[in-house]
Amino acid sequence: MIKKRRRISDQIIKGLIVLSALLSILLLLLIIVFVVSKGIGQVNWDFLTTVTSVRKGTIGIAGNIFNTILIIVLTMLFTIPIGVGAAIFLNEYAGKGKIVTVIEFATEVLSGIPSIIFGLFGMMFFVETLGLGYCILSGALTLILMVLPLVIRNTQEALKTVPDGYRQGAIGLGAGKWYMIRTILIPSAMPGIITGAILAIGRIVGESAALIFTAGSAKLLPKGILGVFDKMFESGGTLTIQLYLSATSEGDFDTAFGIAYVLLIIVFIINILTKYLTKRFDTTRQK
Amino acid sequence: MQKKTEKLAGYIFLVFGCIAVVSVLAITIFMFWKGTPALFEVGVPELLFGTVWKPSADQPSYGIFYIILSSIVGTFGSVLLGVPIGILTAVFLTDFTDGSKMGRATSKVISSAVELLAAIPSVIYGLIGMMILNPFMYKMEKKIFAGSTEHQFTGGANLLSAIIVLAIMILPTVINISASSIRAVPGSLRSASLALGASKIQTIFKVVLPAARSGIMTGVVLGIGRAIGEAMAINMVAGGAVNIPLPFNSVRFLTTQLVSEMGYSSGLHRRVLFTVGLVLYIFIVIINLFLTHMKKKGERAYD
């Protein structure tokens, strides 16, 4: 009697486990099908290459695409050297002192702070205290703090996998430490650095809360080559910001789904890239 | 010459290493510096425990108690909904997919799906919530409150929608961390339990999950951190009024309060919003301290 009852409860729990596991797939499919079906009709060459303008009668996200790329480039320009440098310091210079504990703790805290707090801090510090105003540069500076832990951690992991023999060999042959780092360590750790960078780009593409009060929401394209530099100091909304505005204050769901479709494609490409790289990274480690 | 570059390189790396520390200090200092003045201007009890939020009235009132409460209720609601599903999915990934080709393929498909769910930008969750959840909630609302004169109709943008969206968003965190801690449970424990005559389900729930407890708890706390800090997605589905957090009420969270009012606020209103940010930051710091404590405990357990 008892045995039978137990088996029935076992079956119920098994069913729940399978259902839960299927839920993730169903949710993903639901999101993909919904976004693609509503967004695909919206996305065409004009949508990607023009700027929304009532006068010209165009609806497009070219300005937002440009802003997103500019913010990615600016953020990574700072984050990569700082993040890689910090990881090198932690792994190669600092030994096991207190300073390593402090920096690693700070990195961990930084990765646990939600993006809205970064946005708030960016607004208080870069926009107001430093007087940069709502501009792409303020947004990029804010994002550096947000994605720095990703780059530091991935570089550190990669550095840990470089065999000690490489270091001793180079030093033994008379190379200085910096020379050894430059010519041996950084190239060996490259896959890890690139993985960290791509993960960081993924976070920037999907970021919205940290940017809404720092980078602003303008959607115009820069005028000419020099305009690109000016654009750094002007307000500029990324794709996610435009999606948010389209879906809320502007009530333009067609554009919102068009952007959602574009974002999904970017996110999936980034996911495939990181997977490919981690795989390659793993095989080099096993050799 | 070479020695100089060597030394310089060392110093530059030190400076880069310290940027993370400086950032954390700067964020903390700014949060307190900007967030505390309003506490004294409005008064601590009036601000933190006041229930009326009317920043632009003639007699403005800045009570954020319902906002704090909504954040707490919303976060725990999403954990209550998301964590069981997450743990069961982790169990499926670790103990239900055997070494067979079919099993490995299923587990791979589910892990990839979870990975992609984690990568989807929060505004897309918000958009889909607006289009699917909110209309559904509105239908329910119309049925439940059919004859009610007291209920303010929200059009479906309510606490329940926000909880569901948050639960979905913390799912990947809970699944990944639970799965890796369940995998770390030694196989000998499973074998011993099975050899004593326990069924597979009994083994999982009485032996494996308790052994993986600390890792699973880490996943839960990380999920709490994600849920309480999420802003854009729930701002799109939770409505825009400060209300007592009941399932069908339109509510404001600490995060959504910042997103929706920071843009146009000024003066004391703005300083109160900085205090809202400070309250959120203090929650986050507490959660982070919990996490470090648990990680330390976990490390000791594996020694």
Characterise the protein shown here:
- The complex is a heterodimer of chains A (287) and B (303).
- Chain A is an all-alpha fold and 287 residues long.
- Chain A has two domains: 39 residues; 241 residues, MetI-like fold (Orthogonal Bundle), CATH 1.10.3720.10.
- Helices cover 77% and strands 2% of the residues of chain A.
- Chain A has a two-stranded antiparallel sheet with strand order 1-2.
- In chain A, β1 and β2 form a beta hairpin.
- In chain A, α3 crosses α6, α3 packs antiparallel against α9 and α4 packs across α6.
- In chain A, 45% of the residues are buried.
- Chain B is built from 13 helices and two strands.
- In chain B, strands 1-2 form a two-stranded antiparallel ribbon.
- Chain B has a single domain, classed as MetI-like fold (Orthogonal Bundle), CATH 1.10.3720.
- The interface between A and B is large, with 86 and 84 residues.
Short description:
The complex is a heterodimer of chains A (287) and B (303). Chain A is mainly α. Chain A has helices spanning 2-39, 45-49, 62-93, 98-112, 115-129, 136-161, 164-172, 177-188, 190-206, 224-231, 239-247, 253-286; strands at 51-53, 58-61.
Give keywords.
heterodimer, A: 287 residues, mainly alpha, MetI-like fold, 2 domains, 12 helices, 2 strands, 77% helix, globular, B: 303 residues, two-stranded antiparallel sheet
